[in-house]
Amino acid sequence: MLQLGNLVLSERRAIIFRKTGIIADLHLGIEGVLEEKGIAIPSIQIDEILHEIYSLIEEHGLRELIIAGDLKNEFGRNIPGEWADVKRLIENLREVVDLRVVRGNHDNYLQTILSGYGIALEDGAQIGKYTVVHGHDDSPARRIIMGHEHPSIKIRHAGAIYRYPCFLHCKSDEREVWVLPSFSRFFTGSNILEGNFLSPILDGFRAEEIEVYAIEDEVYHLGNLKILGNVV
Predict the structure, then answer these.
(1) Cα(8)–Cα(142) distance, rounded to whole angstroms?
(2) Sign of the alpha-carbon torsion through 76, 137, 139, 52
(3) pTM listed for this prediction
(4) Rounded Cα distance, 202 and 192, in Å
(5) Which CATH number do you get for residue 53?
(6) Residue 37: Cβ within 10 Å count
(7) Which has the closest alpha carbon to 23: 35, 8, 5?
(8) How many domains does the chain have?
């Protein structure tokens, strides 16, 4: 993990603020969506995600967990496997940590599931000086923690290609934004060196204003996007 001011970047793809953990883009139920497309894989993601969350809670003594959008995967409806995975996550965590869920663009119909547990689907959550949003829509907040982008970086070295999920820290005179990697291992991420960002929140940041923190066994500061674009 890497301590930066009052935030901790965890190699478990989370940002920690005091006793609150923030994760994004779990995409529960992706196995069912793939199965409908003819790709049969076992439903294994929920076990790994719960293991990682339990480890985060234990390592940092978390009392609160904020999911910054895309808890589930399917846009148009709640498919059976998705429903089962979301329920299992809530039922395993609600006695262990206070759970808050921020709306993502994949979270249509999620409130149907959450309402059975008395959990609100929030448009944003305040934590210290930061506003936690998903990132698919713009926000008036000046300090933001968000998901949505699934950032990763692809590095070529000695004839091999390596891809690492990463955190982004975007800072200008007007705005400061932290971007979380996807918490789902099914989403290796979009290479930040290949094209534009999806979120309107990131519009206007110059490459030299975006610092990259890659995740492997630890969290490593690689430098800013302008320098990396010239050397990687």
Answers:
(1) 20
(2) positive
(3) 0.92
(4) 12
(5) 3.60.21
(6) 7
(7) 8
(8) 1
Burial class (CB in 10 A: 0-12, 13-18, 19+), 217: exposed
CA 203, distance to chain mean position in Å, is 19
Q: 11, 22, 2: which is closest to 179 by C-alpha?
A: 22
**pLDDT tens, position by position, 71-90:** 987 755 666 678 889 999 99
* Interatomic CA distance for residues 27 and 165, integer angstroms: 16
Residue with tokens 């929140």: 201
Phi-psi label, residue 127: left if phi above 0, alpha if psi -120 to 50, beta otherwise: beta
Domain that holds residue 31: 2-231
Beta bridge partners of 23: 67
For 25-66, the pLDDT digits (tens) are: 999 987 556 555 555 565 678 999 999 999 999 999 999 999
Q: How far, in Å, CA of 12 to CA of 114, rounded?
A: 25
Say whether 135 sits in a helix, a strand or coil. coil
- CA 56-61-63 angle, to 5 degrees, is 95
Q: Which helix (H) or strand (E) holds 16?
A: strand 14-17
